[in-house]
Every structure is written in C-alpha cells, then in structure tokens.
Amino acid sequence: MSKRDEFIDAMKRQLDETNAQIDELEVKIQAGQEKFGAKYDEQMKGLRASAGAMKKKIDEIRAAGDERWEALVAEGEKIQKALVHSFNYFKSQLK
C-alpha cells in the first residue's frame, strides 16, 4: 500500500469515527431538544459542514497526481484536526 493510500485510509477512518460520534450526539440533542435549544442545531450544522469539507479533501487527495497529493496532506491534516477539535469542544458544551 502506498503512502498516499495509507494517508487516505487513516483520514477516512477518522472521518467515519467522527461522523459516527456526531450521529450519536445528534440523537442525544434531538432527545433533549428543549434542554439544548436551537443554538445547538446551528453548531451541529457546522460540524456536518466540517465533515463534508474533510470528505471533499479526501476525495481531492485521492484524485491528485503522484506529485500533487503530498502538497495536499498538510491541508487535509489541518481540516482533520479542526473537525476533531470542533467536535470535542461542542461535546464539552453539552455537559
């Protein structure tokens, strides 16, 4: 397996894991809608948008040529870290 494939697989696993956590969190928010309020809907939309950006970057890296994909790695890692950080921050606000 090439370095690019390994990187894409790692990002994809992280995205899948984060999406699953977002789904679980969304169920909790929907169950306690009165408690959490509408502002959390907007934050949830933001998390979904960040996950979409990460998916888009994975697809871009996958489609990139051998010379170009390495230049996209830093952007992919930045998006990945931002998504995980945003999720963790949002989750901490629900306690």
Short note summarizing the structure:
The chain is 87% helix and 0% strand. It is mainly α and 95 residues long.
3D structure, described in words:
The structure is a single chain. The protein is mainly α and 95 residues long. It is built from 4 helices and no strands. It has helices spanning 3-31, 33-36, 39-63, 69-93. The model has no long low-confidence stretch (mean pLDDT 87). It has one domain (3-93). The radius of gyration is 15 Å and the shape is elongated. Helix 1 (3-31) runs antiparallel to helix 3, helix 1 packs parallel to helix 4 and helix 3 packs antiparallel against helix 4. Helix content is 87%, strand content 0%.
Spans of 5+ residues with little confidence (pLDDT < 50)? none
Nearest-angstrom radius of gyration?
A: 15 Å
Q: Considering DSSP H and I runs of 4 or more, what fraction of the residues is helical?
A: over 70%
What characterizes the major β-sheet?
none
Order of helices and strands: HHHH
Counting DSSP H or I runs of 4 or more residues, the number of helices is: 4
